[in-house]
Amino acid sequence: MATSKVTRKPRKEPMSRVDTAWLRMERPTNPMMITGVLMFDEPMTIERLRDVVRKRFLAYPRFRQKAVDTPAGASWVEDGNFDLDLHVRITALPGRSDKKSEKKAFERFVSQLASSPLDKSKPLWQFHLIEKYGAGSAVVARIHHCYADGMALVQVMLSMTDTTRKPVKSSNLRDAWLKSDGANVERRVGAIDRYMKIGGKVLGKGMDMYRDPTLATVLAREGGEIGRELLAALALSDDPPTLLRGALGVSKRVAWAEPLDLDEVKAVGRACDCTVNDVLMAAAAGALRGYMLERGENLEGVTLRATVPVNLRPLEHAKKLGNHFGLVFLELPVGEDNPIRRVERVAKCMSDLKNSRQAIVSFGLLAALGMAPAAVQGIALDLFSRKATVVATNVPGPQQPLYMGGCGMREMMFWVPQTGSVGIGLSILSYNNRVHFGLISDARLVPDPDAVIQRFGPEFEKLLYLSLMGDWDHSLDSEAATALTGSRT
Predict the structure, then answer these.
(1) Distances (CA, A) of 1 to 4, 93, 479
(2) Are residues 117 and 235 in the same domain?
């Protein structure tokens, strides 16, 4: 008697509310992908890369699942037709006459990938191997934001590396890199449910608070500090109109800068009594300022905002994937000519944000957004994206050389997706005692991101000179600092 074959139904599990929000933020003008680049000292073969992906990357079961969205909600569904060859591909760059033109060709290739949405019928990730780049190879990774946030994806990438050329079965690299933020993070996470409730009230009313001032009063009374923080975030003015804002297209442009010495950045931070992040964001503000001035922008009194992710979980939990971060609005004083005053203003704003609950408010809104009607999602996304010009991410990586598949990793960087009408993304990643800058832009707004990214080095040189020469030099404006350091803006 013949027996009929039983077809196993693919495993399915509900997607978290925040991950659903990131899945539904996808737009033709802003694919929700995190795009990363890894550069190696030696050539890597496609077989070796596939072996690493198979053994290390796919050790996370989530990456065998695809995201399925329906009116009833989004779910993770196991891909019954999973084929690794569709996710790990090999390519070559055209025309490699010299180092500079090769870098340009690579940036164009990464730009094309960053502009192209992933195939929704499959798990939303891919690795592209550039077999010959420089003296070695390079890998471009694309992973949809709904899988995880930047902190978790750095953890994923670290799990694919070793601290020695010969792979070992276990390594303390991740344990050494992951340092818990302790009770401070736990307290923030413990408050998230309350923020989700108040955020849901706002989204459920379709932002009626903007038309009904009595609703704002009710929310502030019901939510206490939560309501006040939420209202303060929503009441922020729109960012001023500049050449960095406008109608978006579907093409992206990426560029990366020569890395900075991390010890020098720390020295500036000590001299200015601020953090490494404050120094780097001030340098970013200076680079944007120089680019905008050169293109005729009037920046007198202008301050732009960047949305900056803030981790909301102990770092050792990053390997669980998912999105567990909030967003804060950091001011970038592009209208300030004095480099040191830019650092001071960035540091003051960051200090104020650290003492606020803005990050948890935004996390609660994202969670509520994940279960809101599509029309409300659109309203909320547009509302928040008008309040910032840049998305900026700073992720600390390991400060020791890494290897993947036996190949030494020389550099790594990544670009975050932008949301709504935001067209500029800035990424900062420290690795092996160097700081790597990457910029991604909408091609309509900034068709030449290299013209921005080339200014990071000179802007930092100004800060290094001014901060280490004493208070008498702090009054120098940008032009004077440039003349003294010999920097080129």
Answers:
(1) 10, 58, 89
(2) no
Residue 182: φ, ψ to 5°: 65, -150
Which pLDDT score, from 0 to 100, does residue 487 have?
44
- Is the domain of 203 the same as that of 337? yes
Residue 1 lies in a domain: no
Nearest to 136 by CA among 108, 105, 101, 99: 99
Look at strands 304-311 and 390-396 and give their pairing. parallel
| Claim to verify: residue 123 and residue 55 sit in the same structural domain | yes
Separation between Cα atoms, residue 368 and residue 348, nearest integer Å: 31
Number of domains forming the structure of the chain: 2
What's the pLDDT score for residue 73? 84
Are 267 and 463 spatial neighbours (Cβ–Cβ below 8 Å)?
Answer: no
SS3 state at 321:
coil
Residue 68's H or E segment, with its range, is strand 65-70
Give the Cα separation of 273 and 231 in Å (integer).
Answer: 32
Pick the closest to residue 159 from 146, 173, 149 (CA basis).
173
Q: What pTM value is reported for the model?
A: 0.81
- Amino acid identity of 239? D
Q: What is d(CA 321, CA 157) in angstroms, rounded to the nearest whole number?
A: 12
Q: Which domain holds residue 152?
A: 12-173
Query: pLDDT tens-digit profile of 361-386?
Result: 555 555 555 555 555 556 566 667 78
Write out residues in the chain with pLDDT < 70, as ranges.
1-9, 95-97, 168-235, 311-320, 324-325, 356-383, 470-489
Phi, psi of 410 (to 5 degrees): -85, -45
Amino acid at 245: R
Q: Could you identify the residue written with the tokens 């960051």?
A: 350
Q: What is the pLDDT of residue 356?
A: 67
Is the Cβ–Cβ distance between 125 and 396 less than 8 Å?
no
Pick from 446, 438, 423: nearest CA to 295: 446
Report yes or no on 5 lying in a domain.
Answer: no
Question: Which of the 8 DSSP states describes residue 237?
Answer: P
Q: How many CB atoms lie within 10 A of CB 338?
A: 19
From CA 468, how far away is CA 466, in angstroms rounded? 6
Helices (runs of H) and strands (runs of E) counted in the chain: 17, 16
3-state SS assignment for residue 38? strand
